[in-house]
Design goal:
It contains 11 helices and 5 strands. The protein is of the alpha/beta class and about 220 residues long.
């Protein structure tokens, strides 16, 4: 007789409509069920102190923390839990960072339901999941460097990228300090590093470049 045990999934997503859609999709599967839903990174980490899901689905953009940071925190708690990133953000830029942080899969929210299900089942089986596009681009990146803004931004560390993104969203230093729980001195240091890496002369150019980047990645 087959075991009736279902694989348990924790959804970490701050948009209720997306959580509902994922729950409805997964509820149709015979061998997978939702064990909990978290609308913030902190709520997810609190849940993991009590329970161990078989899979965690994480969004990159959360209200209280960056999804890449959450992946790293989860791996410190339990390095064995597979993580699938489900995001609206460009996989060609964020997938590599997600894999480096410890995720086993990256898929865009725009994908068809059957593709999302395939990604979930692939990561549950402890195999890496990535689209053919991202597989090809990662291989091409390993073979040659591409020119342009994206490569420059790719040189930023995860924390520098977070500061850069928040600048592009209109946050000032004080707000970035509060959001990332860093000191003013640390944020200012990150800003200097960003300007050096992107060859920007001053704060005005930094804001302009960050704003353009933010508009581009939201398309």
């Amino acid at each position: 007789m087959r075991s009736s045990k279902k694989h348990s999934v924790l959804i970490v997503e701050d948009h209720s409509i997306v959580r509902m859609g994922l729950s409805m999709l997964i509820s149709q599967l015979d061998d997978i069920s939702i064990c909990s839903e978290a609308e913030s990174g902190e709520a997810a980490l609190e849940f993991l102190k009590k329970e161990k899901p078989d899979l965690i689905i994480v969004d990159i953009s959360l209200q209280d923390m960056n999804g890449l940071d959450l992946i790293k925190y989860i791996k410190k708690i339990d390095s064995e839990i597979p993580i699938l990133v489900l995001s609206v953000f460009d996989e060609t830029f964020y997938a590599e960072r997600a894999f480096a942080a410890g995720a086993m899969g990256y898929i865009m929210k725009q994908e068809a339901s059957e593709v999302i299900v395939k990604a979930i089942k692939t990561v549950l089986s402890k195999q890496l999941y990535a689209s053919e596009i991202i597989k090809n681009r990662l291989m091409m990146k390993a073979l040659r460097k591409q020119e342009g803004e994206d490569i420059s931004v790719s040189s930023l560390t995860d924390r520098e990228l977070q500061v850069f993104e928040l600048i592009g969203q209109g946050f000032d230093t004080r707000e970035i300090v509060e959001k990332l729980r860093l000191s003013v001195k640390t944020v200012d240091t990150y800003k200097e590093h960003i300007k050096d890496k992107l060859n920007l002369k001053n704060a005005t150019e930094l804001i302009q470049q960050a704003s353009r980047w933010e508009l581009t990645r939201q398309k």
